[in-house]
Amino acid sequence: MRLLRADRGRTRPAPAPVALKLLVAGGFGVGKTTLVGAVSEIRPLHTEELLTEAGRPVDDTAGVEGKRTTTVAMDFGRITLRDDLVLYLFGTPGQDRFWFLWDELARGALGAVVLADTRRLQDCFAAVDYFERRSIPFTLAVNCFDGADRYPEDDVRAALDLDPGVPVILCDAREKESVKGVLVSVVEQRFAELAHRAG
Amino acid sequence: MTAGLPGDGPGDGDVRWYDDAAGPVVRPYAMTRGRTRIADGAGLDLIAVVVAEDPAGRPAAALADQTLSPEHLDIVDLTEGLPRSVAELAAGLDLPVGVVRVLVGDLVHAGLVRVTRPVPPAELPDESILRVVIDGLRAL
């Protein structure tokens, strides 16, 4: 609450801005919230979605039949690009079994960043697969952790069997400049797609 | 709203079986009187932007409505003159997104807030907006 009130005080009336969103996906602990925090104008906010719907096939609750609700956490940040244009960055829930929540997150998204750690490359397979199937533009960003071996981009591309069109960028999720480059590459894909469609 | 851990404080005789991990003692959907869907059935996106109606334009009866909870009024208060996304309201009020959706739905119905839905996916923003996004990101 305090946080919301803190940036009050601008003169009204404020026209409702156009809101856009980008997703940041990847395995647990790969640095999604760090990446969001590197470019967000606010400290990443934490929100929770209570899932109450029964019978979701992917939510395997065998053994905990009494459990009806599950809490899924998301962290997100905000970048105000212009008075009337705001970009939100949502870190997707790390747990594979909450894919169905991604559907809502992904609806209307400009694109996605799939953040990968070369020591646990398999953790981002699910995210790559998800965005490929839905034709959502994404950039594969390899978070270069201190002490992890560096691999050439082509090796990462081959290991993940990525389409040639998918950008692979080595980045540091803590560094604003590095993250900016990753985000720009996502939006540029959408831009190119539109330009192509327009002929 | 949450209790301390068992054994908090010396001589704490009554043993509490719940702690912070049990979550809030008031079940979140109690605030929505059990409803998990908003009245008009349309889902509110996380980035749908909520803004309070101008005070002059508010139905006089609406604010006196006794069925409005403090959380409803918090949302009106927070969005007065300052548009907020559903996700930001949820984070700021420390409520699950699903609960905020229902509360916002009530407020729309009562004429106290307006919601601007994001650009539908079928019509993604045009090139000029994407250009602003790209330039804006580079200039950060």
Automatic annotation (TrEMBL), chain A:
Keywords: ATP-binding, GTP-binding, Hydrolase, Nucleotide-binding. One of its GO terms (molecular function) is hydrolase activity. Pfam families: ATP_bind_1. InterPro entries: Gliding_Motility_GTPase (IPR052705), Gpn (IPR004130), P-loop_NTPase (IPR027417). Belongs to the GPN-loop GTPase family. This is ATP-binding protein. It comes from Streptomyces klenkii.
